[in-house]
Amino acid sequence: MAIKLSTGKVAFPIEFDNGDVQNIYFNPSDPELATRLMSAKDKIAEKVNNLNFEDFELSNSGEPITIDEIDDVQNLSEEQLKKITERAKLISKVVTETKKIICEELDAAFDSDISSVVFKYCSPLAIVDGNYFILNFLEAIAPELRTYIENANKDAEKKMQKHIGKYQKK
User: Quick one: which of 11, 65, 40, 7 has its CA closest to 137?
Assistant: First the structure.
């Protein structure tokens, strides 16, 4: 016979701007959630703030430029193409590593695989409404967590009073 235990995980729907609704699952009343979330937010913010894409701008003459500013891509020298390719690989590596860290930290904080849902349509490093998408997500979920935790605490207090209220002196 199996012992059945609830983990307390709750579905939180996320509605994307394309109309798709996906659920993420985690236990919002987990007492360690806030600590893990703050740690993850700090690590993610540090990683994102240390990204300086200006360091990775493509260059064909030693001066930082964007790919749009290269006049004649077909007439680049082998050396210039090699530099551009190396820079592009470096950018890709940094972005991939940063995304991996963000997903790992987020999943660890919520003790659940939520990154595959949250980043289904948008990279955590995409700039949306002037901010990185990951930071928009963290800002959006914070008030939801606060509300859920406050309600859960009120319910727990009511249940506790129901059981211990008769033993309290009046």
Answer: 40
End-to-end Cα, the chain, rounded Å: 45
For the stretch 60-78, pLDDT in tens is: 444 444 555 555 566 677 8
65 vs 6, 81, 83, 155, CA distance in Å?
A: 55, 14, 12, 58
**Can you tell me the distance from the alpha carbon of 26 to that of 114, in angstroms, rounded to the nearest whole number?**
8
CA angle 140, 146, 150 (to 5 degrees): 155
Contact 100, 14 (CB under 8 A): no
Could you read off the pLDDT of 115-125 as tens digits, one per residue? 999 999 999 98
Reported confidence tier of residue 170, pLDDT bands at 50, 70, 90: low
Structure tokens at 81: 């193409």
Indicate the pTM of the whole model: 0.72
Place of tokens 């949250």: 118
Q: Is 98 left (phi over 0), alpha (psi -120 to 50) or beta?
A: alpha
Residue 129 DSSP one-character state? T
User: Taking the domains of the chain in order of start, what are their residue ranges?
Assistant: 10-167
Count of residues in the chain: 170
Q: Return d(Cα 17, Cα 15) in angstroms, integer.
A: 7
